[in-house]
Design a protein that fits this description.
146 residues; alpha+beta; Alpha-D-Glucose-1,6-Bisphosphate, Chain A, domain 4; 7-stranded antiparallel beta sheet
């Protein structure tokens, strides 16, 4: 079963600062409660992470996965390469400069699990992931640049 979630937040920072926090994937262990370990397996010539291994644990499900990132101006996306519990994961952040020193951040996520979870657990997980991806990102950006 594949589920999707979208979350939108305004962050009081510019696109470059937000992109810098997102590119610091190793810091996910500090601001994402699901992340236990992160390792960059491949980076591009400018140091942007391309292939990343992550160990996560959330709602009683632990997983080790590899994702592949794509970086653009004001946008980052990633897709699942391998995982023990997921067969699909596609995610994207889109950043739009609002012209007043703030940035609108839209986070989209599609996840398909190989295991079955009760509907109530899935709903809680979706909300938690969306909150971490937006509110957690905002808190980390403001901690660094606010």
């Amino acid at each position: 079963m594949t589920v999707s979630v979208q979350s939108v937040i305004t962050i009081e920072a510019g696109i470059p600062e937000i992109m810098e926090v997102m590119a610091d994937v190793k810091s996910l262990v500090d601001w994402s409660s699901a992340h236990r370990a992160v390792e960059i397996r491949e980076a591009d010539a400018d140091g942007w992470p391309i292939v990343v291994w992550e160990k996560i644990s959330q709602f009683g499900v632990s997983d080790e996965m590899v994702v592949k990132y794509e970086w653009y101006d004001g946008e980052v996306s990633w897709s699942l390469v391998e995982s023990g519990t997921q067969d699909v994961q596609n995610a994207r952040y889109q950043l739009v400069d609002k012209g007043d020193g703030t940035t609108e951040v839209t986070f989209d996520l599609e996840v398909g699990l190989k295991i079955k979870l009760p509907g109530m657990v899935m709903k809680k997980a979706q909300k938690s992931i969306a909150d971490t991806a937006t509110k957690g990102l905002r808190d980390e950006v403001l901690r660094r640049y606010g």
